[in-house]
Amino acid sequence: MNKRLAALVPVFLVLTACATTETANTTATTTQQVGMAAMKIAINAKCTTELNNTPAWKTATQVMTAEQKQSIQTDICGCVSEKAPQNVTTVDLATAALDPAARATIVTNVVTKTIQSCVAEAVNK
Questions:
Q1: What is the pLDDT of residue 26?
Q2: CA 100 to mean position of chain CA atoms
Q3: Nearest Cα to 47, choosing from 123, 124, 117, 95?
Q4: What is the pTM of this model?
């Protein structure tokens, strides 16, 4: 009986290691997805603020209805939120998850890099 148990212990340890590795990979993937979702929310909020503080946007929206302004703003900031992951590295995501000040800087940089192309896309629609 002890020989069987001794033979099964290594098998059990190997199977446990496989399960642990798979769980760790799943956790890392889930964490990354949650991090990216949080970044998208922060990016969308920053985009809205930046857009509303831009003199050209203020001038252009003076002749728009509230619905038109909201629709275009949603298009632009939605575009920024979707394109932003192309400008965020895995290191940036990890840093943003740990450091709120770094997160703000990363979000600002990503919005700055992306907003102009999204405004151009919205204007050309």
A1: 62
A2: 14
A3: 117
A4: 0.68
pLDDT band at 122; cut points 50, 70, 90 = confident
* Ramachandran area for residue 64 (φ above 0: left; ψ -120 to 50: alpha; else beta): beta
Mean pLDDT of 6-13: 43
Query: Which residues, 6+ apart, have CB-to-CB distance to 76 below 8 Å?
Result: 47, 51, 115, 118, 119, 122
Q: Where are the alpha helices (DSSP H) in 54-99?
A: 55-61, 66-83, 90-98
Looking at beta carbons, which pairs linking 68-76 to residues 24 or more positions away fall under 8 Å? 72/122, 73/48, 75/118, 75/122, 75/125, 76/47, 76/51, 76/115, 76/118, 76/119, 76/122
Q: Is the dihedral of CA 56, 60, 66, 71 positive or negative?
A: negative
Task: Give the integer Cα–Cα distance in Å for 88 and 96.
Answer: 10
63, 88 in Cβ contact below 8 A? no
